[in-house]
Model the fold of this input.
Amino acid sequence: MSAADPHGDVTVAHVALAAELAGGDSRATTADVAEYALWLGDDALVLSQRLAGWIARAPELEEDVALANIALDLLGHARSLLRYASSFDGRTEDDLAYWRDEPEFRSAWLFVQPNGDFARTIARQLVAASYQYELYARLAGSADATLAAIADKAVREVEYHRDHAVQWTLRLAGGTDESRRRMIRALADTWPYVDELFRDEPLVARLPGVAVAPSALREPFDRVIGAVLAEADLEVPAGSVSSAGGRRGVHDPELGFLLAEMQVLARRHPGATW
Done:
């Protein structure tokens, strides 16, 4: 420690953050591949931002850490996917995260639904993680090597996310009368947004062997969810289906509030470094 610098040497080695991302530095070869990566990246980014809202607010300390870790996993998936999406036209993952407006996002409506109470978050996580597990398990076999590499890493993390949601679903459903009531209500509030996840879109049809047809995921998803709810002595909710159109840029008003919070620093201080 020198007299000129009472704090000593605090220099750290330069880290190229892009090197941490799954899929390496390869470039998307077509606009459709980039758009597909954007869809999946937006899902992960929006859900990560939502879960971050539980930090320092979870019902117990262990859950504070667990939900923060899940949010970080999802942020990692989002970074890898958005980096790949942005590579097609020379943008960066930050450009896509911070400098697009609502109509330019392609996330499904499920992922932006408010945290609500803890049961509502768990119901959303049960659906999201079960869907993402089936998606990434199949995408790991994609003909696109970058998407396959991202999915191969993501599926192992999402398997934990799914197990976490399953265990809490069983715990809440089998707990007190109040926790069971809240879990039943949470599932009912979440279910209108399930169908959008499994709608086949023209983009996917243009990417045979690369993208995963959402409709192909419905049967294994229903099988897993059915088994979980049966063990919890709960019924699969029935009722209305949302007109959600997130893949076309038509969004729940909740997305605007989420983006305003997420993007404010980058937009208020463009180009800032620290």
Q: What stands out?
A: The chain has one domain: 27-236+245-268. Residues 27-236+245-268 form a domain with the Ferritin fold (CATH 1.20.1260.10). The mean pLDDT is 92. The CA atoms of residues 266 and 273 lie 10 Å apart.
